[in-house]
Amino acid sequence: MCCPELVRSIPSGPPPPRGPAQGALALGPDVLARLRSVCDLTHPLTADFPVFPAYRPFRATPLFSVERNGFFAQELCYAEHTGTHLDAPAHFYVEGGGTESVHAPDLIAPLAVVSIAGRAARDEDTLLGVDDLLAYERRHGRIPPRAVVALHSGWEARLDQPGHFLNADASGVMHAPGFSPEAAEWLVHERDVAAAATDTLSLDFGPAKVYEAHLALLGAGRYGLENVARLDRVPPAGAVIVVGAPAHRGGSGGPARLLALY
Questions:
Q1: Residue-wise pLDDT tens digits, 102-156
Q2: Hey, how many other C-beta atoms are within 10 angstroms of the C-beta on 35?
């Protein structure tokens, strides 16, 4: 997600240098050999899937049909940040890399799922903080280098109720959990993650006016994943995520197919 007014105010300089791409190369054959189950972490693209208010909903227009033309094809129309999708550095930095620049090894990575669902049920604007990440590590071990760290808030349960996922109040301000700026910085500088992910519409919490988690992660050359599905169905540690990322040149992001192997 993003607000067009904000993009113009973001520094145009290139993101800081990032660490060496390792991704699946750091997993080792012993880890990969143990993976037996697959969980699809992707929401299907539909016309009624909630999108950031600045964007138009997904639309599929039939162009040809088997009955009339002998084959079926559609024209798809969607904003890049629709459905389960990837945020590239270019989403917030004029000289940030586009979708095609995301390092391929970082698209197959260890997956760490940090749940704050219990707290999110009580506080819609709760933030995942550094303390949550340290508590996760005490229970599940250190977050691996070049991992994808996912925030699980239980937000997808709201998709059954129209308007409940965007969760805008009477003044139009949305409310949803997100990464604190401190947690985003810590993941980049202390754990060298490849990406951060969330089951909500945005890496930042709903009322954010300056998207500090986005800026910290994308500004360091990392990527983001938003509207991730079924994070409650994969183990907190030990899974591997495979990101079927878009690769259109200069793109700020795009719908992605995410698979968790565990």
A1: 999 999 999 999 999 999 999 999 999 999 999 999 999 999 999 999 999 999 9
A2: 14
Q: Give the CA-trace dihedral at 82, 85, 88, 94, to 10 degrees.
A: 10
Amino acid at position 2, single letter = C
3-class state of residue 169 by DSSP: coil
* Cα–Cα dist 202/174, whole Å: 11
Q: Which element (helix H / strand E) includes 196? A: strand 195-198
DSSP letter at 262? Answer: -
State the Cα–Cα distance between residues 123 and 176, nearest whole angstrom: 9
* 56 CB burial (10 A radius; 0-12, 13-18, 19+): exposed
Tally of CA atoms within 13 A in the half-sphere of 22 that contains its CB: 14
Q: Tell me which CATH code domain 4-9+23-52+79-261 carries.
A: 3.50.30.50
Number of H helices, E strands in the chain: 7, 13
pTM: 0.89
Q: In the beta sheet, which residues pair with residue 196? A: 149, 224
Largest CA distance in the chain: 61
- Backbone φ and ψ for 109, nearest 5 degrees, come out as -145, 155
Q: pLDDT (tens digit, 9 = 90+) per residue, 219-243?
A: 999 999 999 999 999 999 999 999 9
The token pair that represents 182 in the structure block: 């401190």
